[in-house]
Write a structure and sequence with these properties.
mainly beta, 7 strands, seven-stranded mixed sheet, elongated
């Protein structure tokens, strides 16, 4: 009787232990989120001290999500923030420039948005590591390419 119970019990335990492996979750650094998670309606106004031009920068959208890469067994949380610029003095009839700032893990990424296609024309991934450091390290979970040889932080 014991061998019959054992013959049933062992396969049941083996089947119960099978299943999908748990995905490694990679959240946005809480300090990065606290310092840079700008909401729509946030704005900045700057005056160029040399030209006298006044620019307004404002947040038009803030989208949070998760990308799942089951093949590599991880998921990545991200926040994408659309920031637009409009020169308000002197007034230009056209020309709203936009960027998308991405917060991923410990990195800030930036994409210059093409006005004609509304797509990223130039991507900087990563642009800045957070917390700030002299050495720019590639983003482990970046949606774009990392180019660490193209620049460094000279001084903090």
């Amino acid at each position: 009787m014991k061998s019959a119970n054992l013959a049933i019990f062992v396969p049941v335990i083996a089947l119960a232990s099978c299943g999908k492996p748990k995905l490694e979750t990679n959240p946005v650094n809480p300090a990065l989120k606290a310092d840079f998670n700008y909401k729509p309606g946030t704005y900045w106004i700057y005056r160029d001290s040399i030209s006298g031009m006044i620019d307004s920068f404002y947040v038009t959208s803030n989208v949070a999500g998760t990308t799942v890469n089951e093949g590599a067994n991880y998921s990545v949380d991200f926040i994408t923030i659309r920031i637009s610029e409009k020169t308000i003095f002197p007034v230009f009839p056209s020309g709203v420039q936009s960027w998308e700032m991405g917060l991923i893990s410990d990195n800030i990424q930036l994409a210059d948005i093409d006005k004609n296609t509304d797509m990223g024309a130039i991507n900087y991934a990563p642009l800045i590591n957070y917390p700030l450091s002299i050495r720019l390290t590639p983003a482990r979970y970046s949606g774009g390419a990392a180019f660490p040889g193209f620049g460094n932080v000279a001084k903090i």
